[in-house]
What does this fold into?
Amino acid sequence: MGAAWVIENKHTMIFTPNFKLDSYEFQNGAIDPREIGFFINNSDKVIAFIDSLRVDYNITKNQVLINQKITEFIESIKLFESIEIKPTKKIILKESQDIKPVNGNPIKENVKTPKKYEGKSKFFTDLMNNNLKDEEIILIHYILDAAKFKLFTGWQEHIELENIKVWEDVNGINNTLSTNYESVLRRFAMKKLTFVSAVTSGNNPKEVQITEELQNDLLSLPDEINSKILEVINDNSKTETNIDNYEIF
It folds into this structure.
């Protein structure tokens, strides 16, 4: 009965993270294994699936909110993924008597310590030296969290502001960024961190894009930088948050 119902209705196959596509049961089951499906922990496929549902369901067009909910969902199902534990190598330390003293002082073995951020980008050097305003740092976090390297400005600025306000509300962040969004964009432009990527018919900017150099830096931030950004985010967090009112469907 279930197979007959599926055949007669719109459907798609959604696989759990550890599902084996080559399993005998799946290859010889009621559903045609040649149909296209997707794994539930693939964010791009989930986004495409949500877009396909718009034909039959009323779904919000706020992409920031959708991306946020998808991220939360995928994080929640990571608990169900199998974790392969690889054996760790044991480090055998030499006994103290094996290290010969020099002039009465023991010889210290060379221990490699992780390299600290040495200022590859002036923006992040300023960050580590506390020379940036909170809204500049929060904007970087927004760009990373929303995976959005293009930002609306000019007559389209209100669209970005609405996205930012929803993002602030969902993440329990105060309105420091949304209140100062216009001035932050000006500072980024002065520091040559952005360039105009789209203009109106009157040649006025309506969209800016993060420079490729900054994009590359953002995709490979050291832990020290990430910790500093999160520190600022925590300082700008609301005391109480409520995200129960937001739903994708």
The CA atoms of residues 134 and 232 lie 7 Å apart.
